[in-house]
Structure prediction request, 307 residues.
Amino acid sequence: MSKRYIRKAVLQEIRKLSAFDYLKNYQPDMLIKNGRTDYYHREHDSLHFSNGKWYWWSQGKGGTSALDYLVTVEGFDFKDACNYLLDLMKISAPVTTYYYPKQTKPFVLPIKDTNNDLIIRYLCNQRKIDKDIVNYFISTNQIYQDKQFKNAVFVGYNGEKPAYAFKRSIFKNYKLDHAGSNKAFSFSFTNPNSSILHVFEAAIDLLSYMTILKLDHQDFKQYNYLSLAGASDKIASKTEADIPIALKSFLKRNKNIKTIIFHLDNDEVGIGATSKIIKVLSKKYRCIDDHPKESKDVNEELVSIRI
Prediction:
């Protein structure tokens, strides 16, 4: 392809074309709808497009423009990419997408009940989690009983501000993220003096592992802990390696982490998700798969110990 000189004004015009609009106009078969405004790439299912931006989770790279997309994903030389887009736009002017500003509502936690008696009984008696551990997280406002449905609510924070809540019924098999929750700040415990992070599928598994450590006369606060908020099934179904947003965000906030130990479920989904995540992160971190071997999950392992 010819290396024509690209004037500054022309380059600015080329950069206005988003990667999403490039594909929508010139390669529409490559876009697979993944929600109301989200899409992923047919050939790279960890490459996502949302609100005019793109991010390639398996590679840790992203951007906005079609130019950056062609260079990063398709492997174009910069000038070749400019000339290619310029020719396309001359032949057929692209129809561009207008994105309406999002009307965001502030995240509001479910109303707290007057006490936590029911969820303490559920977590300690049924799930066999240590009462001191449950009370510790209640004291830090990370666990409480909601007033309307008596759900156990597990809260994640962005600094001092609540940003995530997972609701679990203590009466039936109901579990759901609270409306407006940001999975980047899922339920966790941070110890800035530790370089070790333990990762779990759910908050109850996290608390169960802390209990197992306490039963072994270890300080449950000595490590970092993170719940993935139920992201494993989506990761296991992908053909490319991927990193859940909760883990990606935690690692970004905690640069001290050197070792990551995974305790996901002992099933095809959990083992598959662990393998895919480790494939990406092992380049930078020491990663260990320590999923339960005899039980389905960490809580079931705890219950079998305490029977």
Remarks:
- The chain has two domains: 8-91, 117-306.
